[in-house]
Amino acid sequence: MRLKEKQLEASVESLISRVAHVKNALHSFIYKLENEYERLTWPSVLDNFALLSGQLNTINKLLKNEKTPSFRNQVIIPLLLSPDRDEDLAKLTEQRVPVFSHEIVPDYLRTKPDPEVEEQEKQLSADAARIGPEVAQKQIQALNKLCSNLLEKLNNPRDDRDAESATMRQNKSSFNPADTNALVGAVAFGKGLSKCRPPGPVAPGHPGQGPMMSGGPTLQQVTIGGGGSQQAGMGGPVAPQQQGQPGKMPSSIKTNIKSASGSMHPYNR
User: Fold this and answer.
1) Is 24 part of any domain?
2) DSSP string covering 209-237, please?
3) Where is this region: Disordered (predicted)?
4) What is the pLDDT of residue 171?
5) CATH number at residue 12
6) Would you say 48 and 24 are in contact if contact means Cβ atoms under 8 Å apart?
7) What letter does residue 48 receive in the DSSP assignment?
8) Dist CA 105 CA 79 (whole Å)
9) What is the pLDDT of residue 238?
10) Do residues 256 and 236 make contact, with C-beta atoms less than 8 angstroms apart?
C-alpha cells in the first residue's frame, strides 16, 4: 500500500512538471502573438506548434506508461467548501481559483461533459447509428477522395501550379470562331443579311420602287437581261446593248446607280 502511494505521488509530480512545461510554452507563444506579431514569421509559428505537440505527446506517453498508476481509479473528494477567499489556493492556481465554493466545485471536479454537450453527443451518436453501412461507406470514400485531391494540390510545388494555370489561360479561347466568321462575312460580303425591300408605299409612276429615306435619292431597280434587253425601274425602256461593246452601261443607269449607292452608304444615313 505504501509503495502504491509513492508511485502515485511520483506520477503526479511528474505530470505536474510536464503540464508546467506546456503552460510555459503556451504563455511564450501567446506573448509572441500579442506583442511580436509584426516580426513573427511562419517558420517560427510552426516551431512553436511543434514544441507544443511534442510536449503533449510526452504527457500521453507518461500516462500510458505501465509504471504510471491509473488516474481513473482515483477519487477526489472536497473536504472543505467555503465562500471565503483562500489565499493559498489563489497562489497555487495563479489567481485563477481564489475561492473553493459550491458554485465552482461542480465545474472543476466534473468527470463528465456539461449536460448540454452530453445531449448533443447523444444526438450525434443516434444520427450516426441511423446511417446504413453502404451510405456510410460512400460518404467515407467521397471524403477520402476529397482529402486526397486536396493533399495532392498542397503537396505539388508552386511552380507546377503556376505553369498549369498559365497553360489553362493560354488554351482557353476568348472568342467564338463561328461568330467571328459570320461577322466578317456579313461586313465584307453581305452574307446572311436580309434582302427584303424596306416597307413603304410605292410612289406613283415608279413601279417596284419604295421610299428609302425621306428627302434623299431613291434606289432604282435595274433589270439586265441576258438576251440583250435592259429596263430601268423608272418605267422607261433602255436601249439594247450594242454588239462589240460588252459590259457598257448607259449613262442614265450609271447616274441612278451612283446616286442610289451614295444614299445607302451607312455613313450617309
Assistant:
1) yes
2) ----STTS--PPPEEE-TTS-EEETTS-E
3) 155-179, 197-269
4) 66
5) 1.20.58
6) no
7) H
8) 11
9) 45
10) no
In angstroms, the CA 106 to CA 90 distance is 18
Phi and psi of 135, rounded to 5°?
Answer: -65, -40
DSSP class of residue 238? E
Q: In degrees rounded to 5, what are phi and psi of residue 237?
A: -70, 155
How many Å apart are CA 90 and CA 137, to the nearest integer?
Answer: 52
Residue 2 lies in a domain: yes
Q: Does the pLDDT of residue 117 top 60, yes or no? A: yes
SS3 207: coil
Model confidence at 163: pLDDT above 80: no
The order of strands in the sheet holding 222-224 is 222-224, 230-232, 237-238
Alpha-carbon distance 218 to 206, whole Å?
11
pTM of the model: 0.41
- Cβ–Cβ under 8 Å, residues 222 and 253: yes
> What does the pLDDT read at residue 54?
92
Grade residue 203 by pLDDT with cuts at 50, 70 and 90.
low
Decide: 59 and 19 in contact? Cβ < 8 Å. yes
Domain span including residue 28: 1-74
Residue 230 has pLDDT above 80, yes or no: no
Alpha-carbon distance 262 to 103, whole Å? Answer: 100
Using pLDDT thresholds of 50, 70 and 90, give the confidence band for residue 207.
Answer: very low
Compute how many other C-beta atoms are within 10 angstroms of the C-beta atom of residue 246: 7
Query: Alpha-carbon torsion 84, 90, 95, 99, what sign?
Result: negative
In a domain, 26, yes or no: yes
Q: Does residue 234 fall inside a structural domain?
A: no
